[in-house]
Amino acid sequence: MTANRPLIAVLTGAGISTDSGIPDFRGPNGVWTRDPAKEKLFTFDNYMSDRAVRVESWRARMENPAWTARPNAAHLALVELERAGVPIRIITQNIDGLHQKAGSTPRKVIELHGTMFTVRCMGCGARGTMAETLDRVRAGEDDPACMECGGILKSGTIMFGELLDRDTIDAAAQVAMACHHFWAVGTSLRVEPAASLCEVAVRSGASLTIVNAEPTPYDHLADDVVREPIGEALPRLASALKASLLG
How many domains does the chain have? Predict the structure, then answer.
């Protein structure tokens, strides 16, 4: 692959993982669509101030379908692009690790909202694994505290109302500015600053393709808007791009 080949940046949201059995949030069968009260489990202030919310959150973490989910055709299509030598970076709003599980090189995946596989203490900053902490929950601790300082533990993910890591969002913005093609896949593009990466890419001269079942606030900027199922659309788009670049 020569240096002048276009860099592909792919922003992925919850919709790319629904075929793996992980429900999205705002879709017709989304977690919050079916039960709006669930949103409080993902809100930082509620989590920090209400022990009952934390207890319910730990119970929900144990039952998260992402623990047993497998990558689907959409994740694998991006892996095939990378293996074909296409310069690709993935910017994901997901916390499920399915891009890495599919085979995408971890350093080429930017996890905007963190990962569900770690925990951190909101008091002293100590970190640990989610697996070890869930073992404590199963053993009877309904709201496990930090083993170092007794502080509140939370998943290593970014909740609503919590600031994104500055270095992470800066890295994502650099990718958006450098790419020649920007694909937004399975995201409502309603959560900032992730959604605005579309505009960053377009202003820097990239083409924009949006693959999402529902309209988004950035559709008017897109060169192509695709409404077909992601598991069908992304392999098709990836195959066409690979053919155009590699012949």
Answer: 2
